């Protein structure tokens, strides 16, 4: 279920408060890790613990000691020496050395499991080149890796890599979960994340503005009463589909219908065909006519193009008060026309914007790499600047209303194909039409979109070739299984 994510500064504050009260956090962290490893790896494992110069290394020494006592073959390799260890880590090292193990400086060739205790949340600059070389060798060798707290080299707040990262199969993270484990490079680097709160009292945790979003429940707004009709579930207007891009608008419209909108009309900028032969339930019209009809929710952007007609349509829709989802070229137009940007910001009704990182970068007048380096900050800034609910797509899609930020837990790289964004826009519009708030519809829509791809992955392990239309069918199945 949805749970809080803490930034480095928040965790450091919690830790120092608890340490001041005498809680043996490092001992608890290392012991919890050793127990977990003891339950998941055979006693025949040959374990090498890579330790670093800070408290993360201290966790590694504690973990090594308990695994050794439990009967594993354990080596500890201090890969980096910076200065004197802090008190707790120094004590952990002393207790390890008292067991009398052989001192090593290199990775024993019979190693079957690497425990990464090099850097934790104290990483503050690029990984040194000699350590990076070791990380690359281990990554390339495909050894099992369990990271303590966070994979070394990964930024705990942003999910960016500081030069090089030691990729893990599992990350055993302590005290609180971290955003960097779930967005940008986080999911690839961390593998499966297991949280150990180390028995801290609930009062130790501040209210967290950031969360990891996941749900198994059908939102209350989507529970259907017998006494309802198609009007109950709203009419969505999708505007886009300029010449050569008709498919984008059709995909979005189909997604909106499959996700429960009562009626969907697609206003095409290119000459509209009479009907969609695969989904004749859709209404097709010319965009100029469609925008004059009443709709409960608008989605504008899929295949919109950027010509004068597109600008006129967008200007009209921005002036309406119904909930409005802006995607693709609608966002590119906002980025290049300051009057449209200002009009969007001043809207009375709810606005949802759904950029991928490059579109977000255009809106923020930044490089895409800068957006990706700080996805949480970027999404909050977008939401704030446009007075909207914003998301930034990609691995660990981030969603914000300008105050709180959530990271989506579902989804996989099968979604990296054309049309998946169009489908997402249609899904969010359908959820808005059924009465969900802008933030809820966006968080839930993104979750469902990812969960659909996850369901498909179960029988298509390599994750290659998922079509956007197939995602819609899976999303409908996932949705209808929620209770
Ligand atoms: N606080 C607690 O009580 C608890 C903490 N816990 C654990 O401790 C972890 C945080 O510990 P931490 O703050 O000591 O930081 P950590 O990640 O070990 O690294 C800092 C060291 O690395 C160095 N360094 C940094 N970057 C570097 C680079 N690129 N290249 C080279 N050196 C670099 C840095 O050097 P400096 O900047 O001081 O020169 C410093 O020596 C946390 O993730 C969790 O695992 C748990 O046990 C629970 C209780
Ligand atoms: N590696 C990934 N993990 C999770 N989701 C992904 C990944 N790659 C792409 N997606 C999702 O797929 C969708 C792609 O959208 P977009 O880039 O707008 O595609 P298009 O414009 O072709 O429709 C987004 O919702 C994005 O979050
Ligand atoms: K680590």
UniProtKB/TrEMBL annotation:
The keyword Cell cycle does not apply. Residues 6-206 form the YjeF N-terminal domain. K(+) binds at residues 56, 116, 152. (6S)-NADPHX binds at residues 55-59, 120-126, 149, 248, 303, 356, 422. Pfam families: Carb_kinase, YjeF_N. Its cofactor is Mg(2+); K(+). Its EC number is 4.2.1.136, 5.1.99.6. The keyword Iron-sulfur does not apply. Belongs to the NnrD/CARKD family. Catalyzes the epimerization of the S- and R-forms of NAD(P)HX, a damaged form of NAD(P)H that is a result of enzymatic or heat-dependent hydration. This is a prerequisite for the S-specific NAD(P)H-hydrate dehydratase to allow the repair of both epimers of NAD(P)HX. This is Bifunctional NAD(P)H-hydrate repair enzyme. It comes from Amantichitinum ursilacus.
């Amino acid at each position: 279920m949805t749970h809080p994510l803490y930034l480095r500064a928040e965790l450091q504050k919690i830790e120092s408060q608890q340490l001041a009260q005498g809680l043996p956090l490092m001992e608890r962290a290392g012991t919890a890790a050793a127990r977990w490893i003891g339950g998941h790896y055979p006693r025949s494992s040959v374990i090498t613990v890579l330790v670093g110069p800070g408290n993360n290394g201290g966790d590694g020494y504690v973990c090594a000691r308990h695994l050794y006592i439990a009967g594993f073959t354990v080596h500890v390799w201090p890969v980096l020496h910076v200065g004197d260890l802090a008190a707790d880590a120094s004590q952990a090292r002393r207790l390890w050395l008292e067991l009398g193990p052989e001192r090593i400086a290199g990775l024993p060739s019979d190693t079957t499991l690497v425990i990464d205790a090099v850097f934790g949340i104290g990483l503050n600059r690029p990984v040194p080149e000699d350590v990076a070389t070791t990380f690359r060798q281990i990554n390339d060798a495909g050894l099992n890796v369990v990271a303590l707290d966070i994979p070394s080299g990964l930024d705990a707040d942003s999910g960016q890599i500081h030069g090089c990262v030691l990729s893990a199969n599992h990350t055993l993270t302590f005290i609180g979960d971290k955003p960097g484990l779930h967005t940008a490079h986080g999911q690839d680097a961390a593998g499966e994340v297991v949280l150990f709160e180390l028995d801290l009292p609930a009062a130790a945790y501040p209210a967290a503005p950031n969360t990891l979003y996941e749900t198994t429940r059908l939102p209350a707004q989507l529970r259907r009463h017998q006494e309802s009709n198609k009007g109950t579930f709203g009419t969505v207007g999708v505007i886009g589909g300029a010449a050569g891009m008709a498919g984008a608008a059709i995909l979005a419209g189909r997604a909106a219908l499959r996700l429960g909108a009562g009626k969907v009309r697609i206003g095409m900028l290119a000459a509209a065909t009479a009907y969609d032969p695969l989904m004749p339930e859709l209404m097709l019209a010319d965009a100029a006519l469609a925008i004059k009809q009443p709709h409960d929710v608008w989605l504008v952007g899929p295949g919109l193009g950027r010509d004068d007609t597109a600008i006129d349509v967008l200007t009209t829709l921005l002036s309406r008060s119904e909930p409005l989802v802006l995607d693709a070229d609608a966002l590119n137009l906002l980025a290049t026309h300051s009057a449209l940007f200002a009009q969007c910001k001043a809207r009375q009704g709810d606005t949802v914007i759904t950029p991928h990182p490059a579109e977000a970068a255009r809106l923020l007048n930044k490089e895409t790499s800068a957006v990706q380096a700080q996805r949480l900050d970027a999404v909050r800034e977008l939401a704030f600047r446009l007075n909207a609910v914003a998301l930034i797509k990609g691995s660990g899609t981030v969603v914000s209303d300008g105050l709180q930020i959530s990271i989506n837990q579902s989804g996989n790289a099968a979604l990296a194909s054309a049309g998946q964004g169009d489908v997402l826009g249609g899904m969010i519009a359908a959820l808005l039409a059924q009465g969900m708030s802008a933030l809820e519809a966006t968080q839930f829509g993104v979750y469902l979109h990812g969960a659909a791809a996850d369901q498909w992955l179960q029988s298509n392990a390599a994750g290659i070739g998922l079509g956007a239309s197939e995602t819609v069918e899976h999303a409908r199945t996932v949705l209808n299984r929620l209770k």
